[in-house]
Amino acid sequence: MKIMLFVCGEGLGHTSRCISLAQQMKASGHEVLMGAYGYSKDLIETKGLRTAEMVPEIQLVGDSGSLDIKSSVIATIKSGQFLRIGKVHRMLKDFDPDIVVSDSYYTGIFSAWMRKKPVYLMVNQSNMEEFFMGKSFFMRSLGKITKRFYTMVFRKVDGIIVPDFPMPDTICKYNLDLEKRVLDSVFYSGPLVGKKYREVREAELKRPHVLSTIGGFGYREPLFHKVIETARLDRNINYTLLSGPSIDSDKFTSLPENVTIMKFIEDQFPYLKSSDLVIAPGGHSMMMEALSFGVPILSFPDMGHSEQENNATSLEEEGCGKRLDYSISPKKLLDHIHQLIENDAYKEKAQYLRSLSHALNGPEAITEMIESKYLNQGSQKKS
């Protein structure tokens, strides 16, 4: 079977989960072509996966820890990228897949419909109009148009894949607003994680250990420094901080001995397995990876980013982490770190979700579901 897998490149969470899915599809004997762009495309290619270059659908703009929706819309229109969708259609025509899977990349969905191909939408958010609430009349109107758009998409696709734990443990549940008429087409696959817990060898790290994926660039830089100040308050807790490729880690000349800064980790799963706690933004895929490895999370969602804020709220309600904000003091942050490391209830809930992730096996579950749908469609055509 030939499978086209489109990837939304806004945030590497989409990329990491699509890599996991593509690897499983290849292992199951299918021919897979991934459509991606930017750094997302580069990362996919390092995994040895066949990739075609797509065009971005949206450009995100933010400042001081918040997402600026109006500026993002204006930047997207000015870029003119949406005028190049013909490139996507031509690529789909040349590859001629049997089935299309699109991770929040809607241009790929419309191209699949034009080619009369079965198409499945992978999504962890279906209430995008929240981004436009409380804004100007123009922005609220744009939000209503957006809702009508994706409601139509949800009705017409062949299936909707939610790469999360099934209800009631779904972390992205507050980001889902699905009509009753489409619920039968929704498939909760479980997390899409690149490696299985039992296959990963722990990194040699001093415990207790905190892994922070808060980058040190742009509006997250103040929080990055705040984590370092927190580490100074208790030298018995060890930290690995990911700064991102744009930060020169050599400039940090007076780090406490319990802090290590790294630009990038090629394989972060050994670090996850050796950590007692993760400090992260509110991105869905990072949460799925940490919880699939049984690690509680302190989440700092970007302000004004309703999807991340909802994820963090659900995380706290589920008892596997806490939602915090950028204004927190180092002393208060240390209190939360102690609580999540020392309170068995958080660890037990995270360990339960690790077991559930293993049982669900998201990449394999999606592959088997698509195979079954494809075979059923073939049988129906013959009859």
From TrEMBL:
Residues 251-350 form the Glycosyl transferase family 28 C-terminal domain. Pfam families: Glyco_tran_28_C, Glyco_trans_1_3. It comes from the Archaea. GO terms for molecular function: hexosyltransferase activity. Belongs to the glycosyltransferase 28 family. This is Glycosyltransferase.
